[in-house]
Specification:
- The chain is mainly alpha-helical.
- The chain folds into two domains: about 150 residues, no CATH class; about 140 residues.
- Helices cover about 65% and strands about 0% of the residues.
- It contains 16 helices and no strands.
- Helix 1 packs across helix 3.
- It is globular and about 55 Å long.
Length: about 300
């Protein structure tokens, strides 16, 4: 009950401010959580993780509790969500979205005994976020008739009705990556995946410029992982240089919200990790992301 109370009063206001801060989505979430144990367990897991950041003296105990709840949630999800139906599509969508944020936060400060390196952990969190797209793509007709449909339709536009696609032709910092892909020696599958990832990232950058450091701007951080093609995350797992450089530009977005407990220093860790992995040959393509880490640069000045 303490964790649930903390989620309702504190945690839900710290992530996806443009969505969960919406009372309508919070009501929908709690309605499904009360009927879907794996979603409720993940809510408790994520909240315990949040509390571990707020209570350093109890951090180890709370992180263990978060891991325990997350394990129970995953076991129940695997046992009960084999097929997407009208009854389970919404809790599956909510669960996948929340789990992705949980894994991002875990990537920064992993549980004790976690040996996987940071880059692997972060790529895995992107994979989980991309799972949200998999749920919606295979069950959009069902979701379109659900209680979350009005909120999802609203989330596809910015507050004034502007669509992400309206930013396709605006220029921003990601334009340098167009030149990178033009000279890259890639398979067609990898090239197509990187091009799609870059197109989406440019939209997010321009939307972020448009929104500034607002709550809706923070919500844009999680739009990109959801829209990634599977071939792109495969390229990241294979450590394809071009895909990693695109990811470094996404890391700048993360770094602009480094004061949020979910994000923390993930952006900096990601840029440093990618720079170290790629070496000097690719250094010129990472000049701008690296410059964003200047300690004299404030969050609002990065973008």
């Amino acid at each position: 009950m303490e964790l649930l109370s903390h989620f309702l009063l504190e945690t839900c206001q710290t992530f996806a401010p443009g969505l969960f801060f919406d009372l309508g989505l919070l009501r929908v979430t709690m309605s499904h959580a009360l009927a879907t144990p794996y979603l409720m367990y993940e809510i408790l897991a994520f909240t315990a993780l949040h509390q571990s950041r707020l209570r350093p003296a109890q951090a180890k105990e709370l992180q263990q509790e978060a891991t325990s709840f997350q394990t129970q949630a995953l076991a129940l999800f695997n046992n009960t969500a084999a097929e997407i139906t009208a009854d389970n599509c919404v809790p599956m969508l909510l669960y996948s979205s929340l789990l992705g944020k949980h894994m991002l936060a875990d990537a920064i400060n992993p549980p004790d005994g976690e040996n996987q390196n940071f880059l692997d952990r972060l790529i895995l969190s992107l994979e989980v976020h991309r799972g949200v797209r998999a749920v919606t793509a295979s069950s959009w007709e069902i979701i379109g008739q659900s209680d979350i449909a009005p909120l999802l339709r609203a989330s596809k536009q910015l507050p004034d009705g502007t669509s992400l696609s309206d930013f396709d032709h605006a220029r921003n910092e990601c334009n340098a990556l167009v030149d990178l892909l033009e000279v890259a020696d890639l398979t067609q599958t990898c090239r197509d995946a990187c091009t799609e990832a870059l197109t989406t990232l440019r939209r997010v950058y321009n939307a972020k410029h448009y929104l500034g450091q607002s709550e809706d701007g923070f919500g844009m951080l999680f739009a990109w992982p959801v829209m990634l093609p599977a071939a792109f995350t495969d390229s990241l797992q294979k450590r394809n240089p071009e895909a990693l450089i695109i990811l470094a530009y996404y890391a700048v977005l993360l770094h602009s919200y480094r004061d949020n407990w979910i994000i923390g220093n993930a952006g900096e860790m990601l840029i440093v990790s990618i720079s170290s992995h790629l070496g000097s040959y690719w250094k010129r393509w990472l000049t701008w992301p690296t410059s964003a880490l200047s300690t004299n640069t404030s969050s609002s000045e990065i973008l």
